[in-house]
Amino acid sequence: MRRPMNAMSIKSKVMLAFVALILLPFSALGLYTYDQSQRFLRAQLIANASTTLKQMTFTIENKIDLLESLSDSITYNYRLQQFLASPFSGDDSLDTYFSYAAPLINYAMLFQKVNTEKISVYMKNDSIPEGFGAFFRASRAMKEPWYAPFAESGAKSAWVVRDSAESGRTYGFVQKMVSLEGADIGFTLVEVRPGDLLGTALPENPVAGQDVAIADARGELVFPAGSAVGLPLPLQQKLADGGHAVRGGRLYVGERLDRVGLSMLMNLKLPRTANSWQVASNLIFIAATVVLLFAFYSVLQMALRTMRTSIRQMDQAIESGFEPIPIRRRDEFGVISERFNLLLNKITTLMKDMIRKETIQKDAQLAALQSQINPHFIYNTLDMFSARMELAGQFEVSDAMADFGKMMRYNMDGRSKFATLESEIRYLEQYMNLQKVKYGGEVELDIQVPGELLGLRMIRFILQPIVENSIKHGFPANGSLRIVLTAGLGSERTVLISIKDNGPGIGETRLASLNRRFRESDYAPPDDHTRESIGLGNINERLKLFYGEAYAIRLNSLEGEYAETIVTIPCGTGEEDNNDV
Fold first, then answer.
1. Sequence-separated contacts (24+) of 549-554 with Cβ below 8 Å
2. Higher per-residue confidence, 46 vs 109
3. Would you place residue 7 in the very low, low, confident or very high pLDDT band (cuts 50, 70, 90)?
4. Closest CA to 79 of 113, 119, 121
5. What region, left, alpha or beta, does residue 142 occupy, with left being phi > 0 and alpha being psi -120 to 50 degrees?
6. Cα four-point dihedral sign 108, 112, 114, 115
7. Which residue has the higher pLDDT, 261 or 184?
8. pLDDT tens across 457-482, in order?
9. If you average pLDDT over residues 363-389, what whole number do you get?
10. Would you tell me how many other CB atoms lie within 10 Å of the CB of residue 226?
11. CA dist 403 to 68, 78, 374, 430, 528, Å?
12. What pLDDT does residue 181 have?
């Protein structure tokens, strides 16, 4: 795949990229946008239809609440319950019947917000006579189809459908009446016509192409008469649970009226997609894309022709010995030509600098060879003085002069930044020999390093400055100075090197301050001659520079007893160093 692509011209690659990265994605984006717009319009239509249907359902639910409230006002009336639970006898009962019980039903029929068809009280007290078109024996209702399911359900109230010759089909709310003593004294039935319960929720002037109907649990349409919203029962049940469906270019949505066992169904005609306009817009998009493609091809052809001309001019400039090419354009190709001329000028300058540097390097190598004579002259002079002192019998001074010459050789050898622990110890011993010339037996160095650690590679000039700091600041008030150098393995492949003296030590506050400064790299030598000399700060920075922040110097001390400097060196780091001292 890569080889054919490499063989293609830039023009073909750009055209292919235009088709693959612009034409096809934009076509797919156009189709996707059209699909999403249709989905959005349909979702908006469903949301509007659902909102309208919920408002209708809310209106019916309010009426149902009013009818149930009306039933409660009669069913739970205390005086009516007493009247129905007491034996009917004499003028008192008849007077209550005429003056209170019957007017209660009439007042409820008159003063209500719902056009109720009928309010009935079914009594189980057979001593009370039927009358006023509202009080009936309970046995009369027991013969009707709705009574048995209601009684068997054990519910205190329910909505039922009642068919009668005088009123036709009505919806009724039946509710049991129970006295305060818990006796079953009958039930009430508040009836309303379908049109009064359901019809007022429907719009008086429905939107064109929109139908609303109400169906029962069996899927039969109950209102309005002659509605054509009917759907298969499974689909109707799905719609009643708040779903939606599309059938035959129409949208169906539903809402359930649980208390009356009905469901409201709405269907509306889906707006026709502007197919002709969509086709026209697609054709316009394709035509515009083709025109843009040809225009892009023409511009690309012109740019490639200019590019080929610029390449020929660059070839001629290279063959002519880096002569600048003429600049006749101010566009991007002119900028490229200008940068190419700058590159030619830079190459010419670099070539001249390279020749000059090679000449300087040869002169520097010759000077370096000549300068190597000077250190050897110093070493040879020190050896000559040492030999003369030994002949004169000054053996101690002769040994000190020899040690000083070896230290000079160790210091002036800059070929490596690293040395072995053994070389550092040997250098330290030579330094102590010089100190004994001054202090004699008042200073003592005890080295306790296992043989297997002598080959440890570490950066140079670490131990001697620490010992020098102990000699300078660590002499006890009385007695001689004893310095102990120990080394041992630590955790995580490290070697701990300890230099401990028996000097006056460091105060607790000062010790904490020094350790914090070593860790945080803000060490700065003070002006007064305190215990931390400039050498410790230099060693600390070099350790952290070479090995990392975790390898800072650590100080331990007990004031008046001792001072200890601990250096941590990781195993297996550094360079080989075979220089002998």
1. 549/521, 552/518, 552/519, 552/521, 553/518, 554/515, 554/518
2. 46
3. low
4. 121
5. alpha
6. positive
7. 184
8. 998 888 988 998 888 888 887 788 99
9. 51
10. 6
11. 118, 126, 19, 5, 32
12. 84
Q: Are 79 and 100 in contact (CB under 8 A)?
A: yes
What single letter denotes the amino acid at residue 426?
R
Both tokens assigned to 481: 């100075």
Q: DSSP per residue over 261-323, as a string?
A: TEEEEEEEEPPPP-HHHHHHHHHHHHHHHHHHHHHHHHHHHHHHHHHHHHHHHHHHHHHTTSP
**Tokens 């795949």 map to which residue?**
1
Give residues with Cβ within 8 angstroms of 103, minimum separation 6: none
**Which is it for strands 157-164 and 562-570: parallel, antiparallel or unpaired?**
unpaired
Q: State how far the Cα of 576 lies from the Cα of 147, in Å rounded to an integer.
A: 109
Running DSSP on this structure, what letter comes out for residue 131?
Answer: B
Task: Name every residue whose Cβ is closer than 8 Å to that of residue 488 and which is 6 or more positions away in sequence.
Answer: 450, 453, 495, 496
The CA-atom distances, in angstroms, between 350 and each of 343, 347, 448, 456 are: 10, 5, 58, 45
pTM above 0.85, yes or no: no
Q: In this structure, what token pair is assigned to residue 341?
A: 């001329």
* Contact (Cβ atoms closer than 8 angstroms) between residue 541 and residue 521: yes
Determine the Cα–Cα distance for residues 253 and 259; give it in Å rounded to an integer.
19
Query: What are φ and ψ of residue 9, in 5° steps?
Result: -75, 165
> Is the model's pLDDT at 485 over the cut of 90?
yes
